């Protein structure tokens, strides 16, 4: 049986911009990656690898495919918004009806859609 989600994989059209987005804007940590025989990176959240980045593959013509987006539980809405604003990364912030969860949607430099979910008690 499935116990949880292990990771997402992103094909980086521009490795430097991709790494800057995931580490500087989203706050993931670049960490240990075994020698898989091709270039890439593993990005960590809370000590666990959650995003695998490929540096050696062409981006598919149909970028999103059947996966609509990846979503992360996040903390620090004000600080996160400040990082997005400082980096010039466009985003959409909305409040989920009913639960009040803050949802920040954006796209990584390769076109992958990313969602960050913040507790309803956080302020903007």
Task: Please tell me about this protein's structure.
The chain is of the alpha/beta class and 124 residues long. The protein has one domain (8-60, 68-118): 2,3-Dihydroxybiphenyl 1,2-Dioxygenase, domain 1 (Roll), CATH 3.10.180.10. Helix content is 18%, strand content 33%. The protein has two helices and eight strands. The strands form two sheets. It has a four-stranded mixed beta sheet, with helices on one face. Strands 5-8-7-6 form a four-stranded mixed beta sheet, with no helix packed on it. A hairpin with a 2-residue loop joins β3 (40-45) and β4 (48-54). The longest helix has 11 residues, at 15-25. The protein starts with 7 loop residues before the first strand and ends in a 6-residue tail after the last strand. The model has no long low-confidence stretch (mean pLDDT 92).
């Amino acid at each position: 049986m499935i116990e949880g989600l292990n990771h997402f994989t992103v094909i980086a059209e521009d490795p430097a911009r991709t790494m800057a987005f995931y580490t500087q804007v989203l706050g993931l940590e670049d960490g240990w990656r075994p020698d898989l025989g091709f270039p890439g990176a593993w990005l960590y959240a809370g000590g666990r690898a959650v995003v695998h980045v490929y540096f050696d593959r062409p981006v598919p013509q149909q970028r999103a495919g059947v996966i609509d987006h990846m979503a992360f539980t996040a903390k620090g809405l004000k600080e996160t918004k400040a990082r997005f604003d400082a980096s010039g990364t466009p985003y959409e912030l909305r409040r989920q009806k009913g639960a009040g969860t803050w949802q920040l949607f954006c796209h990584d430099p390769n076109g992958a859609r990313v969602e960050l979910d913040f507790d309803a008690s956080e302020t903007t």
